[in-house]
Specification:
433 residues; mainly alpha; two-stranded antiparallel sheet; 22 helices
């Protein structure tokens, strides 16, 4: 199966693939906040994207060649004035160097630089920008993308679209990845694509089908060489179990995922999710241990921000208003960078916190914002969760007292005891700090 860059990105929902508006939007937002250096870094990234676009579109016309050379030099001059210690600046300078590298290797070198930058942008939660850069990377092939590369890129594109709640483009890319995996006999890619499609179903609120797919993947990935895929399937299965109300089963499955995974970033993400599960059953000390381990790691923007949201929610549950406000303010600084599901989760947890502290008017206002976002992005599961809280806001007051009273007894539940003991062993063994 030959996949072209056009086919891979044709389902993208943005109206203009070549204007690189997300970079300009970031530059404008940083300028409005009075942050000159971040604004200039974002503008530099925009100039680099435009430069690569021109390089990939250039003809043999002398005027085109001369115009490209002028653009190359002006972009270089702009980047020279940016701080060298910034990781993003290093990425953009590397891309500019790749643009002018030896012709026989230029496209491959440029592609590597673009994909590395896209991973960085994803790590920082800048999914729209990462898609723009990946789109340029796809164009460096000039035509058909080899099956192995197509599988990797399709999974990346699908994941970014899923994070942006673009369900149809995500599913189309997962299908392309699965087809490429079948063609290359790469079982891991096939299973990752199926996990991705299960997560799309979960995002749309179809928990039973999502669970069915993930359980099949878990059953088919028990071999040692598929340990990371197995761990990822377990991790996502635990989320579905949690959403279905099987909290203790979700804890044990999530812990199995932690033990199976080898990738450090994935392990940290699962550790954060494990903290969420422990907090949900009232095991606050074990949850804090998880969150502390996450915050001490070199985790991504998404993981660290989610951890901050969970700490905010947990402190409101135990009635610690000062800690709740501290984490709320910290999370608020990241609000502009939050993808749709996280932006809803932030408002959901803030709304519940306000209600727990008797601020019902403020709670209703922020929960209505969350409801509007869920409707806009067709996040059905989130919509129903927020709507239930809005219609039963008084339950938040009762829920706080119930959780705090029952926390000590819940801590002794067999699943909680097993997971808590396992975490202590991992810390003692130096697996986590």
């Amino acid at each position: 199966m030959a996949v072209s860059a056009l086919e891979l990105f044709t389902s993208d929902s943005s109206t203009d693939h070549l204007d690189f508006a997300p970079f300009l939007n970031r530059a404008r937002a940083e300028r409005e906040r009075g942050l000159d250096v971040p604004a200039r870094i974002a503008l530099g990234a925009y100039l680099v994207a435009r430069l690569v676009d021109r390089r990939l579109s250039i003809t043999d016309n002398p005027d085109d060649i001369e115009g490209f050379r002028w653009q190359l030099e002006s972009t270089r001059k702009f980047l020279v004035e940016l701080p060298t210690e910034e990781t993003e600046v290093a990425h953009t300078r590397g891309i500019v160097d790749s643009v002018s590298s030896a012709p026989e290797h230029r496209d491959a070198i440029l592609r590597m630089a673009l994909v590395a930058y896209a991973y960085y942008l994803e790590h920082e939660g800048r999914f729209e920008e990462a898609l723009d850069i990946l789109r340029l990377g796809g164009r460096t092939y000039g035509g058909a993308i080899p099956p192995v590369d197509a599988a990797t890129m399709a999974l990346f594109v699908a994941r970014l679209n899923r994070m942006l709640a673009r369900w149809e483009p995500a599913n189309l890319s997962y299908n392309l990845a699965e087809q490429a995996g079948v063609e290359t006999r790469d079982v891991g890619t096939v299973m990752l694509a199926r996990i991705g499609k299960a997560n799309v179903l979960r995002g749309q609120g179809n928990l039973p089908t999502s669970r069915e797919i993930l359980e099949l993947v878990v059953a088919e990935t028990g071999s040692p060489e598929l340990a990371d895929v197995h761990g990822r399937a377990l991790s996502d299965l635990s989320v579905v179990l949690d959403r279905q109300g099987n909290l203790h089963d979700a804890l044990l499955v999530r812990y199995r995922a932690l033990l199976s995974l080898r990738d450090e970033l994935q392990r940290t993400r699962v550790l954060g999710d494990l903290g969420i599960g422990l907090r949900a059953v009232g095991a606050y000390d074990a949850a804090r241990q998880c969150y502390t381990m996450v915050l001490s790691s070199d985790s991504s923007f998404i993981i660290r921000t989610n951890t901050c949201l969970e700490l905010m929610e947990m402190e409101s549950a135990v009635g610690n208003r000062i800690a709740f406000e501290r984490f709320r303010q910290e999370a608020r600084t990241f609000e502009a960078r939050m993808p749709p599901s996280m932006a809803i989760d932030y408002r959901y947890k803030v709304g519940i916190g306000f209600a727990r502290f008797g601020k019902d008017t403020r709670a209703r206002a922020v929960l209505r914002e969350a409801l509007g976002l869920a409707e806009e992005h067709r996040l059905n599961d989130w919509y129903f969760r927020v709507d239930r809280v809005l219609r039963n806001l008084e339950v938040c007051h009762e829920e706080q007292d119930l959780k705090v009273t029952a926390a000590e007894a819940i801590d002794m539940a067999p699943a909680v005891a097993e997971v808590s003991a396992g975490l202590r062993e991992l810390v003692a063994a130096g697996t986590f700090r």
